[in-house]
Amino acid sequence: MRNWVFDVLLAGFVTVTVVYYALTGNIDGSRPDTLPDPLPPPPPTAADPPPDPPLLVPADGPDLGYLLFAVALVLSASIPLAWRRRYPLGVLWVVIIAAALTPEAAPRLTFYACVIAAYSAAAYSPYRVATLVSMPVMVLAAGSLTGAELPTVPNQYVPLFILVPLTVAANGLRTWRQRTDDGRAQVEALEREQAEAVRRATELERARIARELHDVVTHNVSMMVIQAGAARKIMDRKPERAREALLAVESGGRAAMTELRHVMGLLSMDGEDAGLAPQPGLDQLDELVARVRDAGVTVQLTVNGQVRPVPSGVDLTAYRVVQEALTNTVKHAAGTDATVTIAYTPDELGVEVTDTGGPPTASAATGNGRGLIGLRERLALYGGHLDTTRRPTGGYRVKARIPLETI
């Protein structure tokens, strides 16, 4: 808005100034208005009559048609300057046409408009080639085609014509530096925000990978350690039972490798592992329970309510809750009995794992509590809740609720 007001005031100032010159100056060619007399007049004597005052226009009056044409020329060249920023090239060509029609005796009618229009086109026009071509055309139109000599600048205006460009240039340089500093600050702020976003994304991805690796490795390795320990103890007395335990160790290792390959496939960017087995879900609880039973824990699986498909993320989370709870049961309560209950309701999916308690195994010392933290993080993604408490009658209970109405 300020630029528009400035341009309007500039156009008005140039228009008023040049129109005043057109109405009061000698522009009809009857007497030159730019060149002084070649010889000074002789000094007056006492006998000479007093000289007449100098005339700006001929004694018989100016040509009215000529003055009207001059004023129209000034208006056509000066008023368009109000749009010099919005349509710089168009304004330049309007001024060029006016300059080409300017009389030889009065080049000042359009000279100042030519200067302003040329600067505006060079500074604001997006059409660089057309602007560069228009500059020599303007020079020809301003003088060469009409044969007019460019006007001289009066001495009293010389400081003005020096100080004004210097002031404008200094202000433009200051503005450019300020915009450059602001742009640099914005770029640095964006870079910091991007780096922070990358850091947060990296932390979230690391947490997700840690949860997957923990759930996959801890359960299967715990099963393998317990089975291997059992096989070692009964290898001499009951080789057939030891053989079954070693087969369970082999099966657990294969299951661990399968899930690890799947986790690595999730991290692969080229999609080469897209054919791996899908993530486990509630439909694979029977296999999970069978592996825990092979480790010596009696597990009972109960499903209440109408079984129905649930979103894949909820399905995987519910499976991980059962897996982590049974893994902790195997590690911290040897010889216990466990119960797994899956409850489908219209609003939520319930998962509950309880055990009767027992002495901890040797692998219990390796726990760090990361499993339950990971479960809470998983459930929080879906608005779920995890409750872990000791039972009054002994043992432990892990209960999770996952809402289904918002999925």
Structure description:
The longest helix has 77 residues, at 158-234. The protein has two domains: 2-152, no CATH class; 198-403, 2-Layer Sandwich (Heat Shock Protein 90). A five-stranded mixed β-sheet has the order 1-2-3-5-4, with helices on one face. The chain has helices spanning 2-24, 64-78, 88-100, 108-124, 128-144, 158-234, 239-267, 285-294, 312-332, 370-381, and strands spanning 298-304, 337-344, 348-355, 385-390, 396-403. It is rod-shaped and about 145 Å long. Helices cover 57% and strands 9% of the residues. Residues 29-39, 53-59 and 271-276 have low confidence and may be disordered. The protein has 407 residues and is an alpha+beta fold. It catalyses: ATP + protein L-histidine = ADP + protein N-phospho-L-histidine. Residues 205-267 form the Signal transduction histidine kinase subgroup 3 dimerisation and phosphoacceptor domain. Residues 35-54 have a biased composition (Pro residues). Residues 316-405 form the Histidine kinase/HSP90-like ATPase domain.
Topology, pairings included?
Blueprint: H1 2-24, H2 64-78, H3 88-100, H4 108-124, H5 128-144, H6 158-234, H7 239-267, H8 285-294, E1 298-304, H9 312-332, E2 337-344, E3 348-355, H10 370-381, E4 385-390, E5 396-403
Helix pairs in contact: 1-2, 1-4, 2-3, 2-4, 3-4, 3-5, 4-5, 6-7, 6-9, 6-10, 8-9, 9-10
Determine and state the CATH class of the largest domain. Alpha Beta
Mean pLDDT: 78
Global geometry = rod-shaped
Superfamily (CATH H level) name of the largest domain:
Histidine kinase-like ATPase, C-terminal domain
Rg from Cα: 47 Å
Show unreliable segments: 29-39, 53-59, 271-276
Largest sheet: spatial strand order: 1-2-3-5-4
Distance between the termini: 51 Å
- In percent, how helical is the residue content? 55-70%
Strand content: 5-15%
SS content category:
alpha+beta
**Major β-sheet annotation:** 5 strands, mixed
CATH topology tier name of the largest domain:
Heat Shock Protein 90
* Total DSSP helices: 10
Number of domains: 2
Order of helices and strands: HHHHHHHHEHEEHEE
Query: What oligomerization state is this entry in?
Result: single chain
Number of strands: 5
Return the CATH architecture of the largest domain: 2-Layer Sandwich
